[in-house]
Amino acid sequence: MFLCCHLKGFRDVVPKTLLQKYKFDEKDLELLIGGIADINLRDWQRNTTYAAGYTAYSPTVQWFWEAVLSFSPANRARLLQFVTGSARVPMNGFGELQGSNGPQKFCIKQWYVCNATMSLLQCNPTE
After folding, report:
1. CA distances from 83 to 39, 101, 126 (A)
2. Are 119 and 110 spatial neighbours (Cβ–Cβ below 8 Å)?
3. β-pairing verdict for 102-103 and 106-109
4. Are strands 106-109 and 48-50 parallel, antiparallel or unpaired?
5. What predicted TM-score, i.e. pTM, was given to this entire model?
6. Which residue(s) pair with 50 in the sheet?
7. What does each C-alpha distance from 112 to 54, 56, 83, 89 come to in angstroms?
8. What is residue 122's DSSP assignment?
9. Mean pLDDT in runs of 10 for the chain (127 residues)?
10. Separation CA 68–CA 66 (nearest Å)
11. Residue 54, number of CB atoms within 10 A of its CB
């Protein structure tokens, strides 16, 4: 009974004919609902903007990406959760990341974290 109710509710939202037409399966549904489980660091970097004096070539930014590269997948997801409020990447990648006011690329700038933004203090991690 429980499963039947869920299936009926799902079909009320997504018609069965639409699922059949586009050969939509459970994996497609999981991606649509949950986003991409694996965090593609290259995609993240390509869809990042920089502000407040930072560029992709700033030493602090380079150290940040080196640190993220060394993270386990779980820690990358935790970082993403901390900055964006979600540990999942949108279905079509970081280019579709949403901020509080709609589409917004991941942004690295100085001092504060807000709306898919990671702010870094200028520092040398080897000092």
Report:
1. 14, 15, 24
2. yes
3. unpaired
4. parallel
5. 0.61
6. 108
7. 14, 18, 10, 22
8. -
9. 76 77 68 71 95 90 95 87 81 84 84 60 64
10. 6
11. 21
Amino acid type, 105:
K
Quote the tokens at residue 111.
Answer: 């001092």
How many CB atoms sit inside 10 A of residue 39's CB?
21
* Token reading at 67: 């640190």
Structure tokens at 94: 């970081």
Query: CA torsion angle for 110, 112, 114, 117 (degrees, to 10)?
Result: 30
Place of tokens 């006011």: 101
Three-state DSSP class for residue 50: strand
DSSP annotation string for 56-86: TT-HHHHHHHHHHHHS-HHHHHHHHHHHHS-
